């Protein structure tokens, strides 16, 4: 699909890049012309500071909880990723992307488990239209204590009984949309995030209102509330929002207004 789009729109894309100065639309990425990019999200409450390793070498170092690293260029092809306690090469968890491709974004997530650290992998083909200014949204479940949830990105005051989930059936260690599929596109605006147990309207999390900007690129990750006991209690979660690999600030942690936080 990207190859066809590249051939069909190459001259139009060049004009767009000149007109827009190359910013905002990620034309090279959309057309599959740029190198693959990869970043890392530390989503283990109370976890150690870690180094992010790609094919056995540290790509980024000294990463703490809630930190989202900048996207970095990586090579194409099969790629082994993992993370280790800072200064060590002994992996706490690892995984493999079978075929890293140009124009794609890849996310590696340090995931808390009940017995040992775990890992999550997302391949994002970045099929955003060249003229679109919509926000891109994707979810990931890093909460073994809330192993299957539905997420609603809705205006404040929305009754979830009257609408379907924005991101449905987000199971532990999996993304919605699934790895290899493009993100969901929504208009910028003011929203709240609501989580329910999957397939039900039982609300377990509701955020305060927040602004979602046009052209934002959000990964919404459920995480257990920090603390050994809370990680064992069902549905005790917060949401982390990783904003397009921007490390000017850590991932935004949304608290649960249902608990008065």
TrEMBL record:
Keyword GTP-binding: no
Pfam families: DUF4397
Keywords: Signal
Record-annotated DUF4397 domain positions: 38-152
Endpoints of the signal sequence: 1-21
Database matches in InterPro entries: DUF4397
Name this polypeptide is given: DUF4397 domain-containing protein
Keyword presence, Signal: yes
């Amino acid at each position: 699909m990207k190859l066809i789009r590249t051939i069909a729109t190459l001259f139009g894309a060049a004009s767009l890049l000149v007109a827009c100065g190359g910013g905002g639309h990620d034309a090279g990425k959309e057309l599959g012309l740029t190198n693959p990019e990869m970043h890392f999200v530390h989503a283990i409450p109370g976890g150690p500071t870690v180094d992010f390793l790609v094919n056995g070498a540290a790509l980024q170092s000294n990463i703490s909880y809630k930190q989202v690293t900048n996207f970095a260029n990586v090579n194409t092809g099969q790629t082994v990723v993992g993370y280790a306690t800072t200064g060590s090469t002994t992996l706490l968890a690892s995984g493999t992307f079978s075929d890293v491709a140009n124009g794609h974004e890849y996310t590696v997530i340090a995931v808390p488990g009940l017995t040992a650290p775990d890992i999550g992998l997302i391949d994002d083909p970045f099929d955003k239209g060249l003229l679109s200014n919509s926000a891109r949204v994707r979810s990931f479940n890093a909460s073994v204590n809330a192993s299957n949830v539905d997420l609603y990105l809705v205006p404040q005051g929305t009754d979830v009984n009257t609408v379907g989930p924005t991101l449905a059936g987000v199971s532990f260690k999996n993304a919605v949309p699934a790895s290899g599929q493009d993100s969901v596109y929504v208009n910028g605006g003011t929203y709240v995030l609501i989580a329910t147990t999957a397939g039900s309207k039982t609300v377990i999390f509701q955020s305060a209102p927040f602004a979602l900007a046009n052209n934002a690129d959000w990964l919404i990750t459920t995480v257990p509330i920090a603390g050994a006991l809370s990680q064992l209690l069902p549905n005790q979660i917060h949401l982390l929002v990783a904003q397009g690999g921007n490390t000017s600030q850590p991932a935004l942690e949304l608290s649960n207004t249902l608990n008065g936080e």
